[in-house]
Design a protein that fits this description.
By secondary structure, the chain is an all-beta fold. The chain contains no helices and 16 strands. The strands form 4 sheets. Strands 11-12-8-7-13-14-16-15 form an 8-stranded mixed β-sheet, with no helix packed on it. A 4-stranded antiparallel β-sheet has the order 1-6-5-4, with no helix packed on it. Strands 2-3 form a two-stranded antiparallel sheet. The chain is globular, with a radius of gyration of 18 Å. Residues 7-33 and 35-42 have low confidence and may be disordered.
Length: 259
């Protein structure tokens, strides 16, 4: 099950990450550190027992991330850790962007808080699933990631309202549609995690230092990353193709592969 739950509780912007790390059980092989099985001696259905190292990149002032059985829970204020015009004048994070056709809301007055639950170990054996409108992931900044659609149409109709880092507000939450240049700009940096539990990275691959050439229809492939300690892992990249009139790159269009 992968869900986004809107919260009615006010999170502190200075909240610390609470990592619930379970003890490793029945695991004597160093190659399986952090994974145990619940099948009476086989590893057919491995269970994650500690958080993936990639979560260390997430903004600790906005997110609380922990394991809950076979799922990872990500609680977020939804508020980014970088400048944007959408903070509103007078806010310390305000950035003047006169060319942005701002949407009416300002970030400080919206209910951006949400809780996202994803499978701790993505299921890469099933069918692909199309993305939907609304939140499809949480970025390392703490804000939401949306797909390439806006109000049921393509993103062109809203491109003028996107700030310098490919984000805007509407409906109600600050979110990225394009490559979020505040923390990944033509590089291999981690962007965030998507609803299927798969991590999303920038346009370049850590394994080669260049743009990957073996991406599937979702922009994913299997290779080492800066967080996998030399082990290969399936993950997504922002695809290195300019999107229409935006002059930038769609964060993620889908489909999901990890359901």
């Amino acid at each position: 099950m992968k869900t986004i739950i809107k919260s009615t509780t006010n999170f502190s912007l200075m909240a610390c990450v609470c990592l619930m790390i379970f003890a490793i059980i029945a695991c004597s092989n160093d190659d399986n550190e952090g994974i145990t099985d619940n099948t009476g001696g086989t590893d057919d259905d491995p269970v994650l027992t500690e958080l993936h190292a990639a979560f260390e990149a997430f903004n600790t002032e906005a997110t609380t991330i922990y394991l809950d059985g076979s799922e990872i829970v990500i609680e977020t204020t939804g508020l980014p850790d970088h400048e944007t015009v959408y903070w509103g004048e007078g806010n310390d994070g305000y950035r003047d962007e006169p060319d942005v056709r701002r949407t009416p809301s300002i970030i400080s007055s919206n209910n951006n808080e949400a809780t996202m639950r994803v499978d701790a170990i993505p299921d890469l054996t099933g069918s692909t699933v199309a993305t939907q409108l609304g939140t499809i992931g949480i970025a390392v900044s703490g804000s939401a990631i949306f797909n390439d659609q806006e109000g049921g149409g393509d993103l062109d109709q809203a491109a003028g309202s996107l700030d310098w880092t490919g984000a805007h507000i509407g409906p109600g939450v600050y979110h990225y549609h394009l490559e979020p240049k505040a923390f990944t700009d033509d590089d291999e940096n981690l962007v965030g995690i998507l609803l299927d539990g798969v991590f999303l990275y920038g346009r370049k691959c850590h394994a080669t230092g260049t743009y990957p050439t073996d991406l599937d229809s979702s922009g994913g492939h299997t290779s080492i990353t800066q967080y996998t300690n030399g082990e290969e892992e399936y993950h997504y990249h922002i695809i290195n193709e300019i999107y229409s009139t935006t002059g930038s790159y769609i964060a993620f269009a889908g489909p999901f592969q990890g359901y």
